[in-house]
Amino acid sequence: MDITHKIPPQDIRKGALSLYFSYKYFPLWHNFSNYS
């Protein structure tokens, strides 16, 4: 699943904030991985 396409490549802060504010909407057993 792709949360957003609006984060520029290598923008770690925006990626971290996006993941921080969206993780609570996923099931507890969901595994996350991210990449730039």
UniProtKB/TrEMBL annotation:
<dbReference type="InterPro" id="IPR023228">
    <property type="entry name" value="SAM_OH_AdoTrfase_N_sf"/>
</dbReference>
<dbReference type="InterPro" id="IPR046469">
    <property type="entry name" value="SAM_HAT_N"/>
</dbReference>
<feature type="domain" description="S-adenosyl-l-methionine hydroxide adenosyltransferase N-terminal">
    <location>
        <begin position="1"/>
        <end position="27"/>
    </location>
</feature>
<dbReference type="Pfam" id="PF01887">
    <property type="entry name" value="SAM_HAT_N"/>
</dbReference>
<protein>
    <recommendedName>
        <fullName>S-adenosyl-l-methionine hydroxide adenosyltransferase N-terminal domain-containing protein</fullName>
    </recommendedName>
</protein>
